[in-house]
Design a protein that fits this description.
mainly alpha
Length: 83
């Protein structure tokens, strides 16, 4: 853009054009950020309100986190007969 603004032979017009370009870009970028922030906030509020407690799956196996059985569960397990 600076090259195109510098190629204009009338003095001062190139700087005016460059300033208008920068103001337009900044204004558009600000509007885009405001719209994306509003969409993100609405989406997070909708997700928070629409997910029910019963939609969560609880860990049904006793033991450590992640579903891996603890040492006490391994000690209680019946030995498997060989053969």
């Amino acid at each position: 853009m600076r090259g195109a603004a510098g190629a204009i032979p009338v003095p001062g017009v190139g700087q005016t054009l460059l300033h208008a370009y920068q103001v337009g870009f900044t204004s558009t970028f600000n509007h885009l950020m405001i719209i994306s922030t509003v969409v993100a906030l609405i989406g997070s509020a909708a997700a928070f309100s629409l997910v029910r407690q019963r939609d969560f799956v609880l860990n049904q196996t006793p033991g450590r986190a992640g579903g891996a059985p603890g040492p006490e569960a391994e000690a209680k397990a019946a030995p498997v007969p060989a053969g």
